[in-house]
Specification:
It is a single chain. The chain has about 425 residues and is of the alpha/beta class. It has twelve helices and nine strands. About 30% of the residues are buried. The structure holds guanosine-5'-diphosphate. Guanosine-5'-diphosphate (GDP) binds next to α3, α8 and α11. This is Dynamin-type G domain-containing protein.
Length: about 425
């Protein structure tokens, strides 16, 4: 069955790299947090002279402040960490099939697609632990429930949405592996509808791990499509860009198609490797795919739900195109999880290392000072003991001298008394 053509069935998904790394780094920061809390408690429990500036102090007021400050930093990082995910954004001209590609990857018709569903806003699909789908708009924190695709479609085309705003669709994780494995999908308005590219990049792309350009295999890349990626690559260092030559089902039956395909491939490789310089030629070749999102979606829906495939939905040679789509997903998954682990977790790891290093230094300082403090006290005590001992000895000596003197005095008196008696 086509179901077994890739897309995560029956094998460990590459996305687990990110999922596991996220779990581990969260655990590590939980440990660091406990350590920071303990250190904070220790510092707070010290008496004022121990954390003052005097001789007695074992920790300086600045260091005491540093320890307290670490708690705030760790809380901040942990907060960001729980929200970290992998993000893929889709760009291309209207009707190239962006929504259909996303639906095919999610194996469900989540985004409305087709004529009349052009929106000027960004639509993000992300996983939710809720069993009910809902929608969040920028103007409120209150999720609105989505009963049906129709309802969503009419909400999106109601005209009330601000241009370049973001709508978040919270879709049950239980229904979709990619959402469960922490990928967030972002669909953009057509790049041909007078976009404010700088705003798009600032608002939506700076945290993207992968960019997918959904191109139309029936025409070559347009300058507007290229311009956007030039801007992206001037802002982000070496963005990961995939190119989907979509609607390949329509093109493939045409004459001289092999030549056309080679032309597309050459152009795309040239664009990625020489113009954008985001990949070398060999890597670039692995970033271009000739697919049919529509066929992939239709056949997956049929596999998953038993909905019969409509007549003529699958054109001759569809298996190869569906296989190519799954191939794209395999490469995409490996790329996005590797890239997200690196970009998202590397900086947290560095900050975590710095914090534990600094904290260790502060605590070691305190430990050394408190040891010195203890030694000083012991020395003082010893000195006092020594003094007492001498005093004791002196007293001893003194008392012996006194005793001797008294003895002598007594003897003298005795002698005098005796001689006086003899004289009588
Ligand atoms: P978007 O505006 O880029 O999001 O494009 P849509 O996903 O809404 O697709 C526009 C129209 O093209 C819809 O009617 C889709 O069914 C159709 N479409 C999308 N992908 C393909 C494909 O690979 N082959 C064919 N023949 N039609 C497609």
């Amino acid at each position: 069955s086509l179901r077994n053509l890739g897309n995560g069935h029956g094998r460990e998904s590459a996305l687990q790299l990110f999922v596991q790394a996220k779990k581990r780094i969260n655990d590590i920061f939980k440990d660091i947090d406990e350590y920071v809390v303990d250190a904070g408690k220790f510092v707070q429990g010290l008496s004022p002279e121990l954390k003052g500036v005097g001789e007695e102090a074992i920790i300086s007021p600045e260091n005491a402040q540093v320890v307290v400050g670490f708690k705030v930093k760790i809380d901040g990082i942990r907060e960001v960490l729980t929200r970290d995910h992998m993000k893929v954004v889709f760009f291309g001209r209207t009707s190239n099939g962006k929504s259909t590609v996303i639906n095919a990857m999610l194996r469900e018709k989540i985004l409305p697609s087709g004529i009349g569903h052009t929106t000027h806003c960004f639509i993000q699909v992300e996983g939710s632990d809720n069993e009910e789908a809902s929608m969040l708009t920028e103007d409120s924190n209150q999720p609105k429930s989505i009963q049906s695709l129709k309802q969503l479609a009419s909400a999106l085309s109601s005209g009330k949405l601000k241009e370049n705003s973001l709508i978040r669709i919270l879709w049950p994780k239980s229904k979709c592996r990619l959402l469960r494995e922490d990928i967030v999908f972002l669909d953009s308005p057509g790049i041909d509808v007078s976009p404010d590219l700088d705003l798009w990049i600032d608002k939506f792309c700076l945290d993207a791990d992968v960019f997918v350009l959904v191109a139309n295999a029936e025409s070559t890349l347009m300058q507007t499509e290229k311009n956007f990626f030039h801007k992206v690559s001037s802002r982000l260092s070496k963005p990961n860009v995939f190119v989907l030559q979509n609607r390949w089902d329509v093109s493939e039956s045409e004459e001289d198609i092999d030549k056309v395909k080679q032309q597309h491939l050459d152009n795309n490789i040239q664009f990625l490797s020489e113009e954008l310089q985001v990949a070398d030629k060999r890597e670039a070749k692995d970033r271009v795919f000739f697919v049919s999102a529509r066929e992939t979606l239709v056949s997956r829906l049929q596999d998953d739900t038993g909905i019969p495939t409509p007549d003529r939905a699958l054109l001759p040679g569809f298996q190869a195109r569906i296989f190519e789509f799954a191939n794209f997903e395999t490469k995409f998954e490996a790329c996005i999880s590797k890239s997200a682990v690196k970009t998202k977790f590397e900086q947290h790891t560095d900050r975590g290392k710095n914090i534990t290093f600094e904290l260790k230094k502060v605590m070691e300082d305190a430990f050394t000072s408190s040891n010195q403090h203890l030694e000083r006290q012991q020395r003082l005590r010893q000195e006092r003991l020594d003094e007492l001992e001498t005093l004791d000895k002196q007293l001893d000596l003194l008392s012996r001298e006194v005793k001797a003197k008294i003895k002598v005095m007594v003897e003298t008196v005795e002698r005098k008394v005796a001689s006086a008696l003899n004289d009588e």
